[in-house]
Specification:
The complex is a heterodimer of chains A (about 240) and B (about 450).
Chain A (H helix, E strand, L loop, with lengths): L2 E6 L4 H12 L3 E6 L2 H14 L4 E5 L8 H9 L4 E6 L7 H6 L3 H27 L3 E5 L12 H22 L4 E7 L19 H13 L4 E4 L2 H11 L2 H4 L5
Parallel strand pairs in A: 1-2, 1-4, 2-3, 4-5, 5-6, 6-7
Chain B lengths: L3 E6 L6 E7 L4 H8 L5 E2 L15 E4 L6 E5 L4 E5 L4 H8 L4 E3 L10 H6 L7 H4 L6 E8 L2 E5 L5 H7 L9 E10 L4 E9 L2 H10 L4 E6 L11 E9 L11 E2 L11 H13 L6 E6 H5 L5 E2 L10 E9 L3 H14 L6 E6 L13 E9 L5 H14 L3 E2 L9 H7 L3 H11 L8 H5 L7
Parallel strand pairs in B: 2-4, 3-4, 14-16
Antiparallel strand pairs in B: 1-2, 5-6, 6-10, 7-10, 8-9, 8-10, 11-13, 11-15, 12-13, 12-18, 17-19, 17-20, 18-19
Helix pairs in contact in B: 5-12, 9-10
The chains are: A alpha/beta (about 240), B alpha+beta (about 450).
């Protein structure tokens, strides 16, 4: 049976790599993002790689008017409907400190915007009795750190939302994969100092696809981030609050 | 973040630069980055300073790598310039197509292959990469502009092998080559000396042919090596997909010292029995043998290496033997030198190929005598009426290069129109004074 994915935030580096892998295994992709003119080139790429269906559709996490058409488009697709969320934004913590109003945008991009779309899509997935949701969070959501805690808080909120959505969709035969990538070599992280163990997007996308195929619940990618974050989570708060990691 | 300041180098690592780098992933981001006035660069598989712009900006095209269209009936592929040739081989070989020309590394990008008008092991019958380009789209301030050999022959020729000087290449339309399968039947033959090598290359009727020469052998053994001839055959890819090993650290300088290299070359020769051997190999292993070791350039240590590659006309084979003898006598270690026959095919004013024989030799940069040796080799190439390959070069002098490339003025005239303010200058173009020609 055919499977069609909606990719939210399809211009992101990891999304592009993931959409390629879906196309190469014969899934359809609907690429949702702000720059649809450039996304048309990604849709062309997916078609050449083997996607039976590849389209673009406008989506802006901060513009709720773009949400309903996405769900309507997916409803018009036959077969299994799946969704992958790569939306996100990460202004420097110092910019947020200077202008706390930026918090609203960060929370909308990383959490509430995509969550609203998934919430609208969930009844369709339940009706079709299956499908997968991939939600990309971040290791930054595992613990609030001085350098990144607003972004981290939004990602943590999204991770908790995904956990609940998993609880709901599992009952209807669906599945939710929460992905927590470590540092990834993307346009968003290009030129940021102090990054280490940086993974290429293609590697992260490969890990995500494997997690989808194996119906994993929560993955860290590359997998060593599980170890790193286990240690960071285990640090008692009285000590953690004095660290700047 | 759009820009980062970094130290970066050509593949040989003997030439490096400090400057700002952008790596756009979308067309608007590319347009914005180009506003900072710097050349577009690919995966930096050129050996010298061709992909460098010290003190300025450069735009890495590696993430602009989308496939835009493919016609399965005609084999015409439109692809963004940052796609690597290895990726295209991997994607299209199972469908019965491959890039018509493949250089020795699959990490080279389409844009880099065009900017250096690269050649492959089939140059004697397929010509150069640019001869299979049907159209190229350049980014201009007014937006993308498609350039075809019919519509704008001057600009097209200046772009093929044009070192990126006519503007950033956004995408290209390529004519792929139909293939019967994903296998190469390879025949390896031991060759005793240089004259026998030339004779064997001349006698070869194979579609693909490359010679590996032991550049440490002297006198009677000068030019001994292995001739590898390949023919495409039917069948699926044999063996498992390659998993590249990597070189985790810069090797100490002695790793490729003279005795080590001598031993390696001897082992490499003796692998192939006297009577030769036949094998069936996957295409990627045949075309990109060194890609099996990621970052093999680190084997030359921190100081890196230069590669000298020249071509001489067919009737100047004795001059090429003198060149090889000069290298062997100088004792600059190089594990494997490459000797190939070339056909006349070339697509641009500054294209390297000419009908004759080409020789490529690596030289470790830590050896103090390398620049003087290189200069001597330059003179020998010039006297033989040959050419030096700019994609490999980090040492040549502007006077020689001007003499070796008679179409330089024609190229310069086109480039002056396409990039009047010199936004695309690279360290190589400045060093060789290519843009200041009369």
């Amino acid at each position: 049976m055919s499977e069609t994915w909606i990719i939210l935030g399809a211009s992101s580096s990891i999304a592009r790599a993931f959409a390629r892998k879906l196309a190469e295994r014969g899934d359809g992709v609907i690429l949702a993002g702000r720059d649809t003119a450039d996304l048309d080139r990604d849709a062309a790429d997916a078609r050449v790689r083997g996607a039976p269906l590849a389209e673009t559709i406008r989506f802006d996490a901060r513009d709720p008017a773009t949400f309903a058409p996405l769900v309507a488009r997916m409803a018009a697709c036959e077969g299994t409907v799946s969704a992958a969320v790569f939306v996100g934004s990460m202004p420097a913590q110092s910019e947020i400190d200077a202008d706390p109003a930026l918090i609203d945008g960060v929370v909308t991009d990383n959490f509430t915007g995509p969550a609203r779309v998934l919430q609208m899509l969930a009844p369709l997935m339940e009706e079709r009795g299956g499908g997968t949701v991939v939600g990309v969070g971040s290791v930054a959501g595992d613990r609030g750190r001085i350098g990144n805690y607003v972004y981290g808080a939004a990602k943590a909120g999204f991770a908790t939302y995904l956990s609940g959505l998993r609880n709901r969709l599992t009952r209807a035969g669906g599945h939710v994969v929460t992905v927590k990538p470590g540092f990834t070599d993307t346009a968003m992280t290009w030129g940021i100092e102090g990054m280490f163990l940086v993974a290429p997007p293609d590697k992260v996308a490969g890990d995500i696809l494997r997690a989808v195929e194996k119906k994993r619940n929560v993955i860290y990618t590359p997998v060593f981030w599980l170890g790193i974050m286990s240690i960071i989570r285990a640090i008692p708060e009285p000590i953690f609050k004095k660290l700047s990691i | 973040m759009q820009w980062k300041t970094a130290d970066y180098a050509g593949w040989g690592r003997a030439r490096s630069a400090r400057g700002t780098l952008a790596r756009p992933e979308r067309v608007p981001a590319l347009a914005k980055a180009l506003g900072a006035r710097g050349p577009a660069i690919g995966n930096r598989r050129s050996y010298g300073d061709g992909p460098l712009n010290a003190g300025g900006a450069a735009i890495e095209m590696t993430r602009m790598d989308r496939l835009l269209s493919f016609d399965a009936d005609t084999g015409v592929l439109e692809v963004e310039a940052g796609a690597t040739l290895g990726a295209l081989l991997r994607l299209f070989a199972p469908r019965g197509w491959m890039p018509a020309v493949l250089p020795g590394t699959g990490f080279a990008t389409v844009g880099g292959a065009i900017a250096n008008d690269v050649h492959g092991k089939n140059h004697h019958n397929a010509g150069s990469f640019g001869q299979h380009v049907l159209a190229v789209t350049l980014m201009t301030e007014a937006g993308p502009r498609e350039v075809t050999p019919e519509g704008n022959p001057g600009l097209f020729r200046a772009t093929m092998g044009g070192l990126g000087q006519t503007g950033a290449i956004l995408s290209a339309r390529l004519q792929l080559k139909p293939i019967p399968g994903q296998r190469m039947r390879v025949v390896e033959t031991r060759i005793p000396d240089f004259d026998a090598f030339i004779a064997a290359l001349e006698a070869s009727t194979a579609e693909f042919a490359v010679g590996w020469v032991d550049a440490t052998a002297k006198r009677k053994r000068l030019g001994r090596g292995i001739l590898e001839e390949g023919e495409l055959v039917e069948g699926t890819r044999p063996g498992l997909p390659r998993r590249a090993k990597s070189v985790p650290l810069d090797a100490p300088g002695l790793a490729l010292s003279w005795p080590v290299v001598k031993m390696f070359n001897r082992w490499y020769l003796w692998r192939v029995p006297d009577t030769g051997r036949k094998r069936t190999r996957p295409l990627d292993e045949f075309f990109f043998p060194l890609d099996a070791i990621h970052d093999w350039n680190r084997l030359y240590g921190k100081k890196g290496f230069h590669q000298f590659q020249c071509v001489v006309p067919r009737d100047a084979a004795p001059a090429l033997r003198d060149i090889l003898a000069t290298i062997a006598k100088a004792g600059v270690a190089s594990p494997l030198a490459v000797l190939k026959r070339m056909g006349p095919g070339r697509a641009g004013h500054l294209s390297f190929p000419m009908e004759g024989y080409t020789l490529a030799v690596d030289m470790p940069a830590r050896k103090a005598k390398v620049p003087a040796l290189y200069a001597r080799l330059e003179d020998m190439v010039q006297a033989a009426g040959g050419r030096i390959y700019l994609a490999k070069d980090g040492l040549a002098r502007p006077e020689t290069v001007a003499a070796l490339y008679p179409e330089l003025d024609a190229w310069h005239a086109e480039v002056a129109k396409a990039d009047p303010e010199g936004h695309n200058l690279t360290d190589l173009v400045r060093r060789l004074k290519l843009r200041s020609a009369a």
